[in-house]
């Protein structure tokens, strides 16, 4: 156990709204919301007046009549987010970006060049303010989870260093919603059952939490609350991929077969991405023909995907391309889907498009939001009752005509 708070979590404050205030000085000091019909993000001036993310515009205006709506400058968000990451990279190569505007740094090896972690954190805050023009909060601690909580406590525009000798004292009284992975819904659930603080979550019995959250999630969140987090900072973001494949008896690529098999694979792959809090931009399909020759097709999307139905549609398009390129191959024996170029899903949730077009591939579009919401309710049921509780295809596959009887899943690879 290192005794120093050498992991930093750096997180820009109200990022989208802060960028808007940077780009248009007339917006500074005023309550600003990015969005259209819904508030996608808002400035601290708006938050203080009761406006919050995901709030319908009419309610936000009711609470804050002087609220200024802007549509969002997504290209600028990306450019400025990248510039901040460059600044972080001058202190250590160990930078793990987890979304457009936040990253972990391990500055354990940077002391000789740049001083102790607290000092580096101060320099980062000053330089991001001076060189980019944006407020950034930093948490410094011994683990990633503590550092992430510290940066949230530091907001807005602050620095919190967690003394390794007083970690329990720091965590115990904090609201349970600050635990990484406890969203607003779970947070409200826990609070309603008397688990309001991180200390109370850490002390809750495993059996009780398994009943409330499912065994896997209960164990994970309780461990974080108990201050167990061995994860290292992984530079370069998330490598690897999440994939699944199905081999079957020689079959003609009928629309029924493709819909069923690709639906089943998309369900598995997207479900596992969501369980890990990930989404990915590159979708690859592999098609194996009867002569055991395989072809792959892939596409890199503008936005990361984690919704089952969207992944299935993308995969169907790729398989159609592969088949069109091999018109003489009329028999398949295997299909596989994998997703790579992974990012943390928090980015997807923030990366809300304000396009008028309702494109399901754009996070934040109505269809995309509806699909992800549907997926999440399936995930929740499965978390409590097991995968078999709701089957996309686990049940249907055996019953539908056109799907081989000996359909089976051979292997799942996971590089992530
Ligand atoms: Mg942020």
Task: Walk me through the structure.
This protein is an alpha+beta fold. The chain has three domains: 155 residues, Reverse transcriptase/Diguanylate cyclase domain (Alpha-Beta Plaits, 2-Layer Sandwich); 54 residues, DNA polymerase, domain 1 (Orthogonal Bundle), CATH 1.10.150; 170 residues, Dna Ligase, domain 1. The chain is 42% helix and 21% strand. A hairpin with a 2-residue loop joins strand 5 and strand 6. Helix 11 crosses helix 12. The radius of gyration is 23 Å and the shape is globular.
What's the quick description here?
This protein is α+β, with helices and mostly antiparallel strands. Helix content is 42%, strand content 21%.
Principal-axis shape equals: globular
How many beta strands in the DSSP annotation?
13
Main beta sheet strand tally, sense and closure: 5 strands, mixed
Strand line-up of the largest beta sheet:
5-6-1-7-8
- The overall pLDDT average reads 85
Looking at CATH, the homologous superfamily of the largest domain is DNA polymerase, Y-family, little finger domain
Span between termini: 25 Å
The total tally of domains equals: 3
Which CATH class of the largest domain?
Answer: Alpha Beta
Runs in which pLDDT lies below 50 for 5 or more consecutive residues are: 347-356, 393-416
What is the fold named in CATH at topology level of the largest domain?
A: Dna Ligase, domain 1
């Amino acid at each position: 156990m290192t005794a120093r708070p050498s992991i930093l979590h750096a997180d820009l404050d109200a990022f989208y709204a802060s960028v808007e205030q940077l780009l248009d000085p007339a917006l500074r000091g005023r309550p600003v919301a990015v969005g259209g019909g819904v508030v996608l993000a808002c400035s601290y001036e708006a938050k203080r007046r009761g406006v919050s993310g995901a709030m319908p515009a009419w309610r936000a205006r009711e609470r804050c009549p002087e609220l200024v709506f802007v549509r969002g400058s997504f290209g600028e968000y990306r450019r400025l987010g990248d510039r901040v990451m460059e600044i972080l990279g001058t202190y250590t190569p160990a930078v793990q970006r987890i979304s457009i505007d936040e990253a972990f740094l391990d500055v354990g090896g940077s002391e000789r060049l740049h001083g102790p972690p607290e000092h580096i954190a101060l320099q980062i805050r000053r330089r991001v303010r001076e060189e980019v023009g944006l407020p950034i909060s930093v948490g410094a601690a011994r683990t990633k989870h503590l550092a992430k909580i510290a940066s949230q406590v530091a907001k807005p525009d602050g620095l919190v260093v967690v003394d390794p000798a007083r970690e329990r004292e720091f965590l115990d009284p904090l609201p349970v919603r600050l635990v990484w992975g406890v969203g607003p819904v779970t947070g409200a659930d826990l609070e309603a059952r008397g688990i309001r603080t991180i200390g109370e979550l850490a002390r809750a019995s495993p059996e009780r939490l398994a009943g409330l959250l499912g065994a896997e999630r209960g164990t994970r969140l309780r461990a974080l609350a108990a201050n167990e987090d061995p994860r290292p900072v992984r530079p370069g973001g998330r490598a690897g991929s999440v994939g699944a494949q199905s081999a079957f008896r020689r079959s003609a690529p009928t629309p029924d077969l493709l819909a069923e098999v690709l639906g089943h694979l998309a369900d598995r792959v997207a479900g596992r991405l969501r369980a890990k809090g990930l989404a990915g931009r590159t979708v690859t399909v592999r098609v194996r023909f009867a002569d055991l020759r395989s072809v792959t097709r892939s596409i890199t999307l503008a936005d990361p995907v984690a919704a089952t139905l969207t992944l299935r549609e993308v995969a169907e398009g790729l398989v159609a391309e592969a088949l069109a390129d091999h018109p003489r191959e009329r028999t398949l024996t295997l299909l596989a889907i994998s997703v790579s170029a992974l990012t943390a899903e928090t980015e997807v949730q923030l990366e809300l498009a304000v396009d008028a077009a309702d494109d399901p591939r754009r996070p934040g579009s109505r269809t995309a939001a509806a699909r992800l919401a549907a997926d999440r309710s399936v995930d929740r049921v499965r978390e409590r009752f097991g995968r078999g509780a709701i089957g996309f295809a686990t049940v249907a596959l055996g019953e539908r005509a056109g799907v081989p009887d000996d359909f089976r899943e051979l292997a799942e690879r996971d590089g992530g």
